[in-house]
Amino acid sequence: MSRHILDIDDFTADELASVLDLSERTTWPHPLDGKGVALIFEKPSARTRNATEMAVVQLGGYPLTMRGDEVGFDVRESVEDIARTMSCYHAAIAARVFRHEVVERLARASSVPVVNLLSDRSHPMQALADLLTMRQEFGRLDGRTLAYVGDANNVCRSLLLGATMLGMKTRVASPAGYGLGAADVDRLRMFGSEPALTTSPIEAVGGADVVYTDVWVSMGQEDERETRLRQFEGFGVDDALMTHAANNAIFLHCLPAKRGYEVSDDVVDGPQSRVWQQAANRMHTARGVLLWLFGSAQ
After folding, report:
1. Among 102, 118, 144, 234, which is most exposed with the fewest C-beta within 10 angstroms?
2. How confident is the model at residue 297 (pLDDT cuts 50, 70, 90)?
């Protein structure tokens, strides 16, 4: 039976650590030699496409990238029939979609592993790159504090899950109505920890080892732009906010960044920023996941 990675907690904590270990390998086998990987981009991306295509190539495989309109989920044919068709040709299916139910349906119908490259609910591949970046900076993560400032979105949910699984303390500062939901908090409690929730960025960032933010208006939310910009006023990460974090704190952002909104130039380009290392780790962790799925780790 194929293993599917639809969110970060599809790994156990030990498996998650193994994927991060594999991501740091400097040499690797070619378990995908002669095999294809279907990369379906209903929602376009720069980092995800480049990172995943290169990871497949590095493991000897052939990445075949398709736009959403080329497969036409539930338009040209059903999600399930697309999964069955792609399973005939490819060793795995990876998809970046608008609705999480699409990757769930792909997984149910596919006979090969399905990897979620992003959905409205979760972004496990980004969380892996984030965790690897933090581990490279601090070594062991248990006991470290992560502060997320902004919209408690798909990136935030997967990040907090992974951080909690590795023993980190988590805090989230969001405007009223944009924080974690009760179901998200309950899910984190299953791993023995509860995030500290606040509407104060200073309270969240105080003494934190990692300060993380994301865009306030994501792709598909353009009609909410003006409302969101008003609601998130005062939630930008700038030098003044970073002074409240630990002296050796680092700044992370999944990119693309809207400079002057959720983060200032001084921070994203400053000495505490690890955003380019984080971006590079998207490729390394994509390779780590594929090694874990197809290599000798299992």
Report:
1. 234
2. very low
123 flagged as catalytic: yes
The rounded mean pLDDT for the chain is 95
Confidence of residue 296 (pLDDT cuts 50, 70, 90): low
Which candidate in 47, 121, 126, 209 is catalytic? 126
Does the active-site annotation cover 253? no
Q: How do residues 40-82 score in pLDDT, each as one tens digit?
A: 999 999 999 999 999 999 999 999 999 999 999 999 999 999 9
H/E/C letters for each residue in 79-136?
Answer: HHHHHHHHHHHEEEEEEECCCHHHHHHHHHHCCCCEEEEECCCCCHHHHHHHHHHHHH
d(CA 180, CA 183): 8
Task: Count the Cβ atoms, other than its own, within 10 Å of residue 34.
Answer: 9
> Out of 47, 123, 157, 287, which one is annotated catalytic?
123
Q: Calculate the CA 135 to chain-centre distance.
A: 15
pTM, entire model: 0.95
Domains annotated on the chain, with CATH:
8-123+282-294 (3.40.50.1370), 126-278 (3.40.50.1370)
96 is catalytic: yes
Active site residue 282: yes
Exactly one of 4, 47, 96, 105 is catalytic; name it. 96
Closest CA to 282 of 48, 87, 102, 99: 48
Question: 172-199: buried (b, 16+ CB within 10 Å) or exposed (e) per residue?
Answer: bbbbeebbbeeebeebbeebebebebbb
Distances (CA, A) of 201 to 36, 235, 238, 263, 283: 45, 6, 11, 13, 31
Catalytic residue from among 254, 272, 278, 284:
254
User: Where does residue 143 fall: left (phi above 0), alpha (psi -120 to 50 degrees), or beta otherwise?
Assistant: left
